[in-house]
Amino acid sequence: MLLWIAIIIAVLWLLGFIGGIGGGLIHLLLVVAVVVLIFHFIRGRSRV
């Protein structure tokens, strides 16, 4: 589920970046997406 959230946030970031809408919010979405992805991979490895 975290992976889907990160993908959705990254897509929204990309759409905002291309459209030039959002200003600083665009970069905040990218940071959130990266943090969620890192958390997903760390959490996934600890389960195995």
UniProtKB/TrEMBL annotation:
One Pfam family matching this protein: DUF5670
Assigned keywords, A-Z: Membrane, Transmembrane, Transmembrane helix
Cited InterPro entries: Lmo0937-like (IPR043727)
Membrane-traversing stretches: 6-39
Superkingdom as given in the UniProt entry: Bacteria
UniProt protein name: Lmo0937 family membrane protein
Species this chain originates from: Arthrobacter gyeryongensis
